[in-house]
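Below is a filled-in request sheet from our internal design queue. Each sheet records the structural input a requester submitted and the sequence that came back. We keep these sheets so that new team members can see what a complete request looks like end to end.

REQUESTER: design group, bay 2
PRIORITY: normal
MODE: inverse folding
CHAIN LENGTH: 266
BACKBONE (tokenized):
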């Protein structure tokens, strides 16, 4: 005959497997990365003692203001992220929990991922240059013989493409009438760009807005499809401008600088 367990003993016995599972879950690495606002860089200035944008074959302008490329910093592809990290990140405004595969290509080693990001950055730089020179050609500027070299430290990926293009336009032509494209303001932004000037989404926008605000930007250019993410973390003092093309971004900044036209807003 079996002895009947007391109620407390029965509850304890049932709870043991659950506690064991929770302990395993807390210790097991999870397929996530923890991201936070990263550094920003003025593409009109220097990075590590070298010009971010170096132009030869045409005179360049002395620019005021700033065009800040923004970044996020995420835990590495080999880092172990546990349940506690995920729970902390979910409740922190300055961190985000992202699927690791959305941050890093799956199936690659750390070295392979670094090479992938470098290739994406190189392709983005080439597209940014072609888009900027194409825009200037359409505006009647002569760009024959112009050569552009771009460098931005260890930043990888294509998300600085829009800011590179705007920097080239500002250094060569400004707003088209002798003034700065930035109007002397600190303008930040993000977005991929193709060689025709189309702007694409990038991800991590809410964190990038925080980085821009931290470093003094008062205007933020955001891919149109990511307006909601930008609004989620932008202070009321920051002007959010949605963009879908390089031409649209130049027009919006020019209208903002001259206080003319209707500047789009998120």
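RETURNED SEQUENCE:
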């Amino acid at each position: 005959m079996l002895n009947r367990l007391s109620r407390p003993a029965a509850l304890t016995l049932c709870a043991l497997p659950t506690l064991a599972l929770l302990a395993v879950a807390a210790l097991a690495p999870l397929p996530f990365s923890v991201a936070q606002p990263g550094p920003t860089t003025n593409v009109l200035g220097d990075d590590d003692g070298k010009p971010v944008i170096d132009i030869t074959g045409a005179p360049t302008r002395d620019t005021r203001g700033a065009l800040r490329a923004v970044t996020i910093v995420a835990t590495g592809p080999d880092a172990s992220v546990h349940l506690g990290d995920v729970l902390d990140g979910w409740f922190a405004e300055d961190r985000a929990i992202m699927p690791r595969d959305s941050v890093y290509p799956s199936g690659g080693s750390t070295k392979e991922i670094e090479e992938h990001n470098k290739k994406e950055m190189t392709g983005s730089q080439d597209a940014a240059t072609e888009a900027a020179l194409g825009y200037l050609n359409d505006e009647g500027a002569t760009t024959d013989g112009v050569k552009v070299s771009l460098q931005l430290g260890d930043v990888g990926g294509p998300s600085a493409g829009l800011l590179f293009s705007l920097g080239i336009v500002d250094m060569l032509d400004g707003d088209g009438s002798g003034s700065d494209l930035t109007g002397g303001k600190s303008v930040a932004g993000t977005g991929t760009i193709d060689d025709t000037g189309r702007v694409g989404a990038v991800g991590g926008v809410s964190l990038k807005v925080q980085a821009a605000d931290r470093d003094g930007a008062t205007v933020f250019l955001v891919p149109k499809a990511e307006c909601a993410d930008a609004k989620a973390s932008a202070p009321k003092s920051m002007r959010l401008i949605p963009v879908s093309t390089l031409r649209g971004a130049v027009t919006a900044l020019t209208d903002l600088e001259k206080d003319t036209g209707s500047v789009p807003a998120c």
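SHEET NOTES:
- The chain has eight helices and twelve strands.
- Residues 9-13, 15-28 have pLDDT under 50 and may be disordered.
FILED BY: M.R.
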